[in-house]
Here is the input.
Amino acid sequence: MRIEAHALEHFYGHEKVLNGVDLVIEPGSFTAIIGESGSGKTTLLSILSTLLQPSRGSVRYDGKTFGELGNIDRFRRHNIGFVFQFHYLISYLTLRENVALAALDQTLVDPLLEALGIARLEGRYSDEVSGGERQRAAIARALINRPSVVFADEPTGNLDTKNALGVYELFKRFSIEGTGFVVASHDKKIADYADIIIEMEDGVVKQIHQR
Amino acid sequence: MITPLKALRKNRFKTALIFISMSVSIAAIFLISAISGGVVSMYSSMLKTDGDVIVTQKGIADTFFSDINRSLVSSIAPMEGVKEVSALILGAAPVEPLPIVGIYGVSENRFKSYTLKEGSYPSAGEVMLGSKIYETLKRPETILLSKQTFKVSGVFKSRIGFEDGGVVMNLSDAGELFHKSASIFLVSLSDLSRSDALVAEINALGNDLEAKTTDSFIDSYNQFKIIQTSSDVIGAMAFLMGILGIVSMMSMVVNDRKAEFGIMRSVGLSSGVIIGRLLSETLLIAIAAYAVALGASLGILELIEHADKFQGYINGEITAALMFNVFAVSVTMALVGTFLPALYASRIDPMSLIQRGGA
Ligand SMILES: Nc1ncnc2c1ncn2[C@@H]1O[C@H](COP(=O)(O)OP(=O)(O)OP(=O)(O)O)[C@@H](O)[C@H]1O
Ligand SMILES: [Mg+2]
Here is the structure.
């Protein structure tokens, strides 16, 4: 899926945090969004992933505007995965139930848990596993419907180096199979995995590096 | 385990809190409605037991002030369609240690409407006590009324709380005590179709009398109107408070779960599905709280009815209609209280929900 953002602006109250962002995410690409804290990464990611409506400007998905996508929940379920900085697993559901929550094909749940190395923890709740395991469950939830693009907001923010690298390797694996990734991070290491690096500063795109 | 139960169990503390608040709100609705309804129905049933027509002094606001000549009984008794006329004096006086007790002076032909449990009907200088007050006063042999000592001749049982907590004596003794001839006449009819004609005939006797059928008396009696109106007002307020309690609890729950709502939408679940899940949870709580509140209310009413302190003055009945109404209100409010905030949440961007919520 090709995502095209045009002249995005966003306000929280009177504070303007995105100030005219234009960019294109090519299908299946691995894009990193880097920038200082407060530069607008989370806001941009939320808008691109349909979780937030921009104050001004537009985003097109394979040429369609937000209004033309039809049922937005359905669109999200089929096409988009989101990994939050904080895992945001639902506390009263087990890891497996969290992953299966919106699964279109329940038979894919077990193989995916297996692939992410958390099959043996499937019956545990999020407060009964480690931070890295939680984040892997959250990644499994984002991947379960084979979305065309996964957005990840500081997915390694709460992880140590070893676990962080594990997450990136995982992304790379699915990226090779064709899933697109847009990952926001402070962590410069992400650059090693990305095809495109978008650098944000004060609500605008400062630079785009292509590799 | 089904998911709604799981969600409730995981938030045990909050679930308990909501459950308790809802139960209390519902029980308050039950108790106030039942008790206020009970007071009026008790008064009316006391008057209805053996009076089809009631005669009082003209224009009085309260039967306690009514004063009519008891000798008029002999003018009414021979009228066509009359089965029996009894005269009553309704009064109230302190009986140590109780601050106020209902005193009923009745003509002898009315004694039979009291079911004797012990002893005999009172003759001059004697009284008969309702079983409740008899127990409250610890089975006395005599009682002191306005400095006069009366011998307790017997104990009667009455279904009507006011009477069961009251003192019954001879009409003439009561006349001396309260300085009046009679408060009211209760006329029972052998031919009910004559009631209107009879009312007219008695009114034609003049002499400051006013006759009414019991039904129209109850409808027009100021005291009943006051009790009925104030109980309606209090009942409505309890209802409102209960409803507000339920709605605010429910919106707190949903508010609390905004983030969860946002997460579910971020993975592509539709608002309809999410609202459905929340509704089934609140419905579970509402039904359980209703059941507990109903059980507790029935228990409390039973206790009150048998508590010495209230001398049977307070009793209440939870009718099937009340049960149904309260059930409908509880469930509706739980649903509305969930649905409105949930609907509101479904219109907000998932990301805003997640950031505001903090799962
Ligand atoms: N919900 C909100 N309400 C008000 N202001 C917000 C909100 N979310 C973000 N902001 C502000 O918008 C600006 C951009 O925030 P954003 O979260 O997009 O930055 P970021 O690049 O993701 O930062 P970080 O690296 O710290 O996560 C910041 O100044 C922030 O304070
Ligand atoms: Mg951020």
Observations:
- Residues 29-37+72-210 of chain A form a domain with the Rossmann fold fold (CATH 3.40.50.300).
- The longest strand of chain A covers residues 15-25.
- Residues A 41-42, 153 surround magnesium ion (ligand 2) (CB under 6 Å).
- The CA atoms of residues 149 and 180 of chain A lie 4 Å apart.
